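Researcher: I've been going back and forth with a colleague about how LysR family transcriptional regulator might be arranged in three dimensions. Neither of us has a model we trust, so I'd like an independent prediction. The organism is Paraburkholderia edwinii, in case that matters for your notes. Sequence below.
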Amino acid sequence: MDIRQLETLIRIVETGSFAGAADALSATQSTISARIGALERSLGVTLFDRSSHRARLTPKGQELLKPAQEIVALAARVRHQIGDAQALTGTIRMGVVGLVAQTWLPKLMAAVRDRYPGVTVVLDIALTAALVDKLRDGEIELAIVTGPIDEAGTSSVPLGYDEFVWIAPSALNVPTERMTPVDLARWPVLGLSSQSHHAPVIERWFREGGAEYKPVISCNTVRVLGDLTLAGLGVSLLPRRSYAAEIAAGMLTVLDTTPDIKPVEFVALYRTSTPNPLTSATAALATEISEFANRGR
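Model: Here is an independent structure prediction for LysR family transcriptional regulator. You can compare it with whatever you and your colleague have in mind.
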């Protein structure tokens, strides 16, 4: 019995199949089967019921799961606390929301390459809800998403806050005086898709202000939303810092709206049930690299 076999058992449970574990561990399915076979032979018991499509633990397998998680967690702590960071190797699958991808993700990747040259990163750019689902299912090990996130079996590392403001293309000639949701609703509003963190926030802002939120165009990335706004198609809620150059150049105008919308929190989220020194190390590095403000309002 070795650590790799125990890690494999845990990943099969997380992903629900030998094939899923193979993908998660960047191994072949035959390798995964061989590891579990060797583990079963060393213990003299059957760990998985292979009669159904989804791999299920036998009673003996269920009995082993918690000790396996504890052993893997201890090994991860030893590697992280005592081992040489330069010697860390392996692959980390990391999910990132679009706003981070279009701003400071390249700096984070450069820092990872510099500090952990033996580590390979596989990126997945998606919305927060989709990334949390993938983290839960074991498809990724680390997610940089909007928060706060209350997800069992995970650790959340704060990365700071970003300010989102209503922005209009200067060519649209939207009034500069203070505007309420009712006032803003008279203009074409561009929005993010319903799976976005901002969708319910925006909808509630309009509803509590006595207006109906009816976006003329919706999309699932901030970058596309910004491009549509720059094209003069409507007003949208965008991160002020990301469009500072366009605002300074007079291409975009920050609208004076009331009430204010609270800054958006961002976090690095990773599973604690399957500790991996790569995930905690990368999450810690993200706190150093993050360009978000350290506190909200």
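Researcher: What would you highlight for our discussion?
Model: I'd start with this: The mean pLDDT is 87. After that, consider the following. The CA atoms of residues 203 and 227 lie 22 Å apart.
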